[in-house]
Amino acid sequence: MNQHTHSHIVRFDAVEKTYDGINVVVKRLNLDIRKGEFLTMLGPSGSGKTTSLMMLAGFEMPTSGAIILDGKPIENLPPHRRNIGVVFQNYALFPNMTVGENVAFPLQMRNVSKADQKDQVRSALDMVQMGQFTNRRPAQLSGGQQQRIALARALVFKPSLVLMDEPLGALDKQLREHMQLEIKHLHEQLGISIVYVTHDQSEALTMSDRIAIFNDGIVQQLGSPTDIYENPSNPFVARFIGDNNALFGKVHSVQGAVCHVRLDGGEQVVRAKASSSLRPGARITLSIRPERIHIDAKGDNDNVAAAVVEEVIYLGDHVRVRVSALGSNDIVIKVPNGSLHSSAMTKGKKVSIGWSQADCSALQ
Ligand code: ADP
Ligand code: MG
Question: pLDDT category, 58, cuts 50, 70, 90?
């Protein structure tokens, strides 16, 4: 094994998948998963996340390309010989078995002795704080408890890699957020690698070391939550992660990382951050986060515009103010509750808005 494969537990090498021979649902996927990392595949429904995970688990075969696990191609290894734990939303517990029997199942498959099974089941159940439920049946547990058992079953044989496909999708918001932290803490304790699939961007931001954003079978961007939020590489990513204001225009001039953009239907020139090499005349989308726009800001704003308040929505921790400005009637600003302007915003009010060049990405 060379040094390069050592730092990665998984490598997708030009992996393609078509189910029907016509529609390619995963397109030349190249993706390295680092040892010990929590990597999330995030994207809309139908973007190829589950298919990618199923190929890694061994339940689907790539149409072409290779998947390398721990330095070795795995196309000829059946799922139970890949030493990968799986928690899928539709991979339910066995209803006719007790909790203990469910968790012991992967150990039976691997011919672990009865005595060792008992010890390992106990420690896996303790890990998810379900030690006292060994003799219950799944139907006697809440949704969150069942998901903990599924987690114990995936971890009981001490895999170095665990795959999770929308494991919290069926839980209500509060329990889901609680379980997100529990899974994140287990990951930190155990030092395993996790590949996690979700379509929920806040779940991805909460849990991940890195996020791969999928759309239409293609990874649009791979990076840390901060990277992806602060420096989206294209308009799709900017729209998909976080709230976003999009304005359209053409590049007027470029000076290093600063570019000047002339907005459509107006004379206004906006100073923005160029994400890649942009040429004058190129059509671009400006992306500005709602919390980075300031109301009646003076001095340190690179960009200032006149605006009229169209709508004010009180959301507890912040006020969501929609304004018209720069030829758009849909610019959204998040004003922290308790700040100078949060209570002063009313429909029809004339304000000035401002934001800095560094908070405004010009994307192609
Ligand atoms: P995601 O998990 O991102 O929602 P999937 O990987 O499930 O996406 O699906 C990607 C595409 O492949 C979709 O268009 C879906 O309809 C199609 N697809 C998924 N599984 C199958 C299958 N078993 N047979 C045929 N088409 C499938
Ligand atoms: Mg899916």
Answer: very high
